[in-house]
Specification:
single chain, 149 residues, mainly alpha, 0% strand, elongated
């Protein structure tokens, strides 16, 4: 699965106000999601509702650190639900009522990787490397990691 390429754009105040006016709380996590609803674009993206997402995640033992749980949830949403890493990150953040940056921190800073390196690890051929990295970082929770992969 190839990650969706993202671009940074500038918008004027009028467009910015339109985006703010039309954003739906807890649904639109980025200006891109607002624009996708208003533009006539085809989307292969899977729509995932909060209730459906909660069914997708395994019940992690209380001993599993939040950092590991958040990373595993992001991986599940990417690999099993077809979301991009960015969409999965925002979904995990919404469900846990934390900022997307807090989730990003878990799989970048704490794993010593940049976002593009995480995208590479999420590619099917590199999943064993991702699993090994998580087991190395969280050795006491190797069974949880193995069962998720």
């Amino acid at each position: 699965m190839n990650p969706i390429r993202m671009y940074q754009i500038e918008v004027d105040e009028e467009v910015h106000n339109f985006l703010k006016q039309h954003a739906e709380p807890f649904i639109d996590t980025t200006p891109n999601s607002v624009l996708r609803r208003y533009l006539p674009l085809k989307s292969d993206k899977v729509e995932v509702k909060d209730s459906d997402v909660k069914k997708v995640f395994p019940e992690f033992p209380e001993s599993v650190p939040n950092a590991l749980a958040e990373i595993l949830e992001m991986i599940i949403l990417v690999k099993k639900e077809g979301l991009s890493r960015v969409e999965a990150t925002h979904t995990v953040a919404e469900l846990r009522r934390i900022t997307p940056q807090a989730v990003i921190d878990k799989y970048t800073r704490q794993l010593g990787k940049k976002a593009y390196e995480i995208d590479e690890l999420l590619m099917t051929s590199n999943m064993n490397e991702f699993k090994a990295l998580l087991i190395e970082r969280f050795p006491y929770h190797h069974k949880v990691v193995e069962s998720t992969f």
